C-alpha cells in the first residue's frame, strides 16, 4: 500500500475528502483541520492500494490541489488492517502490475539529473572498468557495471518518449551526452597516467582474452541490452527495485566506454571504434526496450502528465 498526504486550502478540503471517500481502494482516511501552516489549510491523509493510486492522483490534480497545496506519496512496508485487505480485494489488478505514473516521472526525473553525484558515480565506474580492462579482470568489470548510474537517464528517456515529456528527454540527453564524454575524458587521463608510470603495459592491453567480449559487437549485444532494459523498466514500474542489480550487471555500457578510452590511449583505433559502437548499441537497446515495456503497460490519459517537472 501507499500512504497519501494532501495539504490543501480549507475551501478544497471537502472536495478532497469526497474524492477519497468515493475510491474503494482508499482506507484510514484522516482529516486534520487547520494543521497545514504553509500554505495555510488542512491536512488530509489516507492509505491507498497501489492499483488505485494513479486514479486518485489524477482526481486530486484535477481539483488543482497540486497547484494550491501539495500531494505526497510514500510506500508502506507493513499494513495490518482488515479494511486494507478489503480495499485490496475491491480494486481490480495486482499491486506489482500497477503503474503509478506520477511516481515514475518523479523517480526517473530526479535520478537522471546531471549532478555532481551522478558524474562522480559514472567517473568512478569508468575508472574501475579501466582497471578491469587493463588487468583482464571480468570481476572488476562487473563491479564497474554495478557502480554505473546510467540506467536512470535511460529510463527517463524512455518515459519521456512515451509520455511526450520534452523536459525528461532533454534532461536524460544532457546527462548521457555530457556525462559519458566527461567521465571518459577523466578516465583517459587516468589511463595515460598509468601508462606513463608503468602501471599499464601497452603490449598486454593488445592481447586481452577475458574481457574482449566488451567490444565485440554482435546480435546478442542488442538482444542483451534490450532484455536488460525491459527488466529494468519492469522493475521501476512495479517497484521491484531488487531486480535492477541484475540489469546493472547485464549490460556493458560503462565497460565499453572504458575499453574505448584504453584503446584510444594505446592507439588501437579499431578497438576504440568497436567499443564505442558497443556503447551506443547498449544505450539505444536499453532505451528502446524501456519504451516498448511502457507502451505495453496501461497508461492513463490525463492532462496532469503534461505538467512540467518541478525543480528540486
Distance between the termini: 26 Å
Alpha plus pi helix count: 14
Strand order of the largest sheet: 2-3-1-4
How would a textbook summarize the main sheet?
4 strands, antiparallel
Structural class: alpha+beta
Overall pLDDT: 83
Structural shape = elongated
Q: Say what oligomer this is.
A: single chain
Proportion of helical residues: 55-70%
Give a count of the beta strands, DSSP E runs of length 2 or more.
4
Provide the succession of SSEs: EHEEHHEHHHHHHHHHHH
Low-confidence stretches: 300-312
Strand content: 5-15%
What features would you describe in this structure?
With 312 residues, the chain is an alpha+beta fold. The chain has 2 domains: 2-98, Alpha-Beta Plaits (2-Layer Sandwich), CATH 3.30.70.120; 103-306. Helices cover 62% and strands 11% of the residues. It has 14 helices and 4 strands. The chain has helices at residues 10-22, 50-62, 65-68, 82-90, 101-111, 116-134, 138-147, 151-163, 166-197, 202-205, 219-238, 244-248, 253-265, 269-296; strands at residues 2-8, 26-37, 40-48, 70-75. Strand 2 and strand 3 (40-48) form a beta hairpin. It is elongated. It starts with a strand and ends in a 16-residue tail after the last helix.
Amino acid at each position: 500500500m501507499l500512504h497519501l498526504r494532501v495539504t490543501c486550502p480549507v475551501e478544497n478540503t471537502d472536495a478532497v475528502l469526497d474524492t477519497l471517500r468515493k475510491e474503494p481502494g482508499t482506507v484510514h482516511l484522516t482529516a486534520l483541520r487547520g494543521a497545514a501552516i504553509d500554505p495555510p489549510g488542512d491536512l488530509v491523509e489516507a492509505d491507498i492500494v497501489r492499483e488505485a493510486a494513479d486514479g486518485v492522483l489524477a482526481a486530486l490534480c484535477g481539483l488543482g490541489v497540486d497547484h494550491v497545496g501539495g500531494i505526497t506519496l510514500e510506500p508502506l512496508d507493513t499494513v495490518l488492517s482488515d479494511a486494507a485487505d478489503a480495499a485490496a480485494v475491491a480494486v481490480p489488478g495486482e499491486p506489482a502490475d500497477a503503474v503509478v505514473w506520477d511516481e515514475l516521472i518523479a523517480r526517473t526525473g530526479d535520478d537522471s539529473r546531471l549532478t555532481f553525484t551522478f558524474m562522480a558515480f559514472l567517473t568512478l565506474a569508468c575508472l574501475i572498468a579501466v582497471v578491469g580492462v587493463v588487468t583482464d579482470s571480468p570481476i572488476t568489470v562487473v563491479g564497474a557495471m554495478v557502480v554505473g548510474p546510467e540506467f536512470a537517464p535511460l529510463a527517463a528517456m524512455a518515459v519521456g518518449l512515451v509520455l511526450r515529456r520534452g523536459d525528461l528527454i532533454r534532461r536524460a540527453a544532457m546527462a548521457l551526452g555530457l556525462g559519458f564524454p566527461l567521465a571518459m575524458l577523466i578516465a583517459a587521463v587516468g589511463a595515460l597516467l598509468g601508462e606513463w608510470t608503468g602501471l599499464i603495459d601497452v603490449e598486454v592491453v593488445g592481447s586481452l582474452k577475458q574481457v574482449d567480449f566488451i567490444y565485440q559487437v554482435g546480435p546478442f549485444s542488442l538482444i542483451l541490452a534490450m532484455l536488460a532494459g525491459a527488466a529494468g523498466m519492469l522493475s521501476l514500474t512495479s517497484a521491484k527495485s531488487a531486480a535492477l542489480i541484475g540489469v546493472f550487471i547485464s549490460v556493458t555500457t560503462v565497460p565499453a566506454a572504458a575499453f574505448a578510452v584504453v584503446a584510444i590511449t594505446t592507439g588501437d583505433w579499431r578497438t576504440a571504434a568497436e567499443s564505442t559502437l558497443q556503447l551506443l548499441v547498449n544505450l539505444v537497446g536499453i532505451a528502446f526496450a524501456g519504451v516498448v515495456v511502457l507502451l505495453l503497460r496501461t497508461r492513463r490519459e490525463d492532462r496532469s502528465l503534461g505538467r512540467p517537472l518541478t525543480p528540486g
